[in-house]
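Researcher: Quick test of sequence recovery. C-alpha cells follow.
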C-alpha cells in the first residue's frame, strides 16, 4: 500500500471509530474521539517475507485479555531487520486466516502494552506480504468490553517497530 492509500485508510478508520454503530468505542467515547495516533509511513517496514514452515500440528493456546483461551496453529517463522537488528516473528493460523500479533520495545510508552496485530497476506510459496504500517491495536486497547489475544512470548521484540498505530491518547480513551 503506498503512502496515499495508507493515509486514506487511516482517515476511513478514524471516521469508522467516530461515527459507526459497530465502532469499538462506546457512544460516550465516540462523542470526544479525536483520532488515532500513527507513526509516519515507513516503507522500510513494508515487507515481502519468506517463512520457515512450522508443521508440528500442535495447537497453541493463547490467553486473552479477559482470561479466555483461543487456539491457534503456528504456520511459520520469518526473520527481518529493524534498524540494523535482525529479529524473528511467528505467523499463526486461525479459522479466519493468518494472524501476526507482536509486541515491540515501545510497548507501554509508544505502543499498546499487550501488542499490535497484523493479518499478513499469503502470497504462495511460503511468502507473505507483511506491512507493519498497517499494524493496529486490538479493540481492547480502547475499552475493556473487548477480549483480545495477548501476544505470545515468542513474538515479543526487543526493538522498536515504529510503524502503524501508536498507543491511544486522549480523553476518549477508557481510563484516559
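Model:
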Amino acid at each position: 500500500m503506498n503512502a496515499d492509500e495508507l493515509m486514506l485508510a487511516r482517515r476511513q478508520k478514524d471516521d469508522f471509530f467516530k461515527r459507526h454503530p459497530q465502532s469499538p468505542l462506546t457512544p460516550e467515547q465516540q462523542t470526544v474521539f479525536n483520532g488515532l495516533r500513527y507513526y509516519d509511513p515507513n516503507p522500510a517496514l513494508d515487507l515481502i517475507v519468506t517463512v520457515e514452515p512450522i508443521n508440528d500440528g500442535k495447537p497453541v493456546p493463547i490467553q486473552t485479555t479477559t482470561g479466555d483461551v483461543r487456539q491457534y496453529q503456528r504456520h511459520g517463522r520469518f526473520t527481518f531487520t529493524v534498524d540494523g537488528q535482525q529479529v524473528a516473528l511467528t505467523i499463526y493460523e486461525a479459522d479466519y486466516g493468518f494472524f501476526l500479533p507482536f509486541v515491540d520495545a515501545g510497548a507501554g510508552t509508544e505502543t499498546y502494552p499487550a501488542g499490535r496485530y497484523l493479518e499478513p497476506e499469503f502470497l504462495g510459496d511460503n511468502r507473505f506480504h507483511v506491512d507493519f504500517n498497517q499494524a493496529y491495536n486490538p479493540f481492547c486497547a480502547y475499552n475493556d468490553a473487548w477480549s483480545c489475544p495477548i501476544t505470545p512470548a515468542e513474538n515479543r521484540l526487543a526493538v522498536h517497530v515504529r510503524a502503524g498505530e501508536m498507543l491511544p491518547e486522549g480523553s476518549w480513551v477508557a481510563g484516559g
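Residues 3-19 form the longest helix (17 residues).
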